[in-house]
Amino acid sequence: MKQITTFFLFLFALCICTTAVAVKTVTISYADFAAVSDKPYSLTKDGVTIEVTKGTKNSDNHSVFKGQTLTLSSSYAITKIEFTCTANNTSKWGPGCFSTETGSYTFGGKIGTWTGSAGSVTFTASTNQVRITQTVVTIDDGGPDLAGLAWSQNSYEIVQNVDEFEAPTFSKTTDATVTFSSDNTSVAKVSTSGVITLAGGVGTAVITASSPANTSYAAGEATCTITILKSATYSLATNIVSGKKYILVVETSDLCLASRSIESGKTYGYLPVISAKKVGDDIVTATGNEIVITGEAGDYTLTDAEGRVMWMTGTYTSFQLGNVADGANVGWTISIAADGVATITNNDKGKTVQYSTEHGSFGSYATTSDVLPYLYTEKKTDAIKEINSNAPADSRRFNVLGQPVGNDYKGIVISNGRMTISK
Questions:
Q1: C-alpha angle 291/129/289, rounded to 5°?
Q2: What average pLDDT does the segment 324-344 reach?
Q3: What backbone torsions phi and psi does residue 86 show, to the nearest 5 degrees?
Q4: pTM
């Protein structure tokens, strides 16, 4: 009996040891990184790879710049990630500046904690730069294999009538059945085999692939986010009309880009760009990014689509947004050349708005070595301007936009100078 008891105790201890070995932690310190400044950097340690799209190694931390990403990956399931940062919560450099679409992420003080089960986890420094002193990654190298669900591209932002959509491919390693769903079928749909198609609507759709756990593979999930932005047509401006809305456009032999509003909530920054398409003499691009120009020649004020006044300060080449410092000159001088090129100069700093080919954004610079923009304003499509009641009878039928319609059209119809409702 004693021998049997001892045997079972041995088996129990063996099970505990086996379980303990399956789960292990990998600690990555800022000191593990080689010197790097304002560049992508990465390293692999004990089966875990960390990749940063852009940042710097500092004297006591390594950083992820605002808007850049940090990705941790392993051939085994990552079940927990713990960041120790140099600041608290959502303060600049703190863990609360990170966001992720995978698993669950929480933070408190200088510690940010992720939990879940994935082979790769990407964090974005969404609201500010993040500075990390240490990262502890927990992996399970004894559990079932990962499901390996993956889209060839995880997110799309498409300007309606401008960008082409090339559907991502889907792959998996699990032998379990994968189900697919869309949370907004008016924007994008997905077939039972994982083929994504656009549905014509404007907005955002999250396509989800999921599989259950079985004896060989862990449960899996992968998402692909598709955002369709509404577009409008804009025509080239030849003069400035106070109170009118404009966008900046850069046109070169291989570029056609329009200005985009700086992220909501920010008080400074460079104007990002978004894709545009030349259609005849007009431009088609995303709507909702217009700049309102008010005032008079030599003293214009620029206000972005968020209602923030755009001005300059110090030696910065970025735009200040919103609250204006006491005594600051927010005035701009704008001139449009015969070829349509606009020169927009801040009266206080003498800096001119340009598209930087190096940074891929609009800033305001002391020298005009980059690309000066064109100004475009939204093109309005007029409805029928005049109906002549004395004109000869005309059997043609039009809608309120002046477009020809057939006899089976339902709605407001204009024909022969009369407006009727066809039901």
A1: 15
A2: 91
A3: -90, -10
A4: 0.68
